[in-house]
Specification:
The chain has 14 helices and ten strands. It is of the alpha/beta class and 315 residues long.
């Protein structure tokens, strides 16, 4: 019996026009977009479909936009009789996974991630934080170099996204990240690519955001999940609503252990991954982490059809 994992994308996967074809074709998609607009008090639908791109790239818009699109994709899969046994989401995507697992209501989630985006942006003034993707260097070496730079210069820089073999993202103060890039390349990294993001996400510089998020989450009801959701902060399964809330607070200022999360799901019997939401970034990661395990994605009618065909063949 096939064991399916749904994985939900994070920030950076957004694009103008995402889910428009589903909106035009499926009443459930229109219903979810309308619910998002009502919850937020403005039209995230218009922003998703018409842009401008500059607006949808703003963190506090990006997060509810991707969550809405991912929720639409999951609902359409459900209409076609496809559900998962376990789920995970990359950073913001963890909220999408929790909505899909029934732990968080969609309306609550869309409002929370709007604030989460705002808090993360406000935690560090624009221009003071940076992130970079490091290609082709061992995780341990990256961690060691970042720790040494922190110790020497007193400014934070940490490995924050362990995405897949050969790709780790670092984040911190601009000067510390720049210095790390130089030293990492000298140590053998193939490339260090500065990312066009507005804050050093998942670094210790996000602690103010984490504290503000704790206040927002405190009164929110988080139910026990209908199936396990693998948490970013420890790569372990969570079902209890109380534990999920605790992990979400930590998540904003702690690294995303994505590679370990995927490996743990495979070790637990997952033999098919479906990326649910815009773009196919996580599908690329999965192919590098779990070679030979089918990695599918659903973001539009064409990819939905291919995924349904594959799953039908596997029965």
């Amino acid at each position: 019996m096939s064991k399916i994992a749904f994985v939900f994308p994070g920030q950076g996967s957004q694009y103008v026009g995402m889910c428009k074809a589903f909106y035009d074709q499926y009443p459930v998609a229109r219903q979810i977009f309308e619910e998002a607009d009502d919850a937020l008090g403005f039209s995230i639908t218009k922003m998703c479909f018409e842009g401008p791109d500059a607006d949808i790239r703003l963190t506090y818009n990006t997060q509810p936009a991707i969550l809405t699109a991912s929720t639409v994709c999951a609902a359409i899969l459900k209409e076609h009789g496809v559900s998962c046994d376990i789920a995970a989401g990359h950073s913001l995507g963890e909220y999408s996974a929790l909505v899909n697992a029934g732990a968080l209501s969609f309306a609550d989630a869309v409002r929370i991630v709007r604030k989460r985006g705002q808090f993360m942006q406000e935690a560090v003034p624009v221009g003071e934080g940076s992130m970079a993707a490091v290609m082709g260097l061992d995780n341990e070496k990256i961690i060691e170099i970042c720790k040494n730079i922190e110790a020497e210069g007193g400014e934070p820089v940490q490995a924050v996204n362990f995405n897949c073999p050969g790709q780790v993202v670092i984040a911190g103060a601009v000067n510390a990240v720049n210095k790390a890039n130089e030293e990492l390349k000298a140590a053998g990294a193939k490339r260090c690519i500065t990312l066009s993001v507005s804050a050093p996400f998942h670094s210790t510089m996000m602690k103010p955001a984490s504290e503000r998020l704790a206040e927002v989450l405190a009164p929110i009801e988080i139910k026990d999940a209908a199936f396990p959701v693998v948490a970013n902060v420890n790569a372990e399964e969570a079902v209890s609503g109380a534990l999920i809330k605790e992990l979400l607070v930590k998540q904003a200022a702690m690294p995303v252990l994505w590679e370990t999360s995927v490996r743990n799901m495979v070790a637990g019997g997952v033999d098919t991954f479906v990326e649910v939401g815009p773009s196919k970034v996580l599908t690329g990661f999965t192919k590098k982490i779990a070679k030979g395990v089918p990695a599918l994605f659903v973001e539009d009618p064409a990819s939905l059809e291919k995924t349904l065909e594959h799953l039908q063949e596997g029965k």
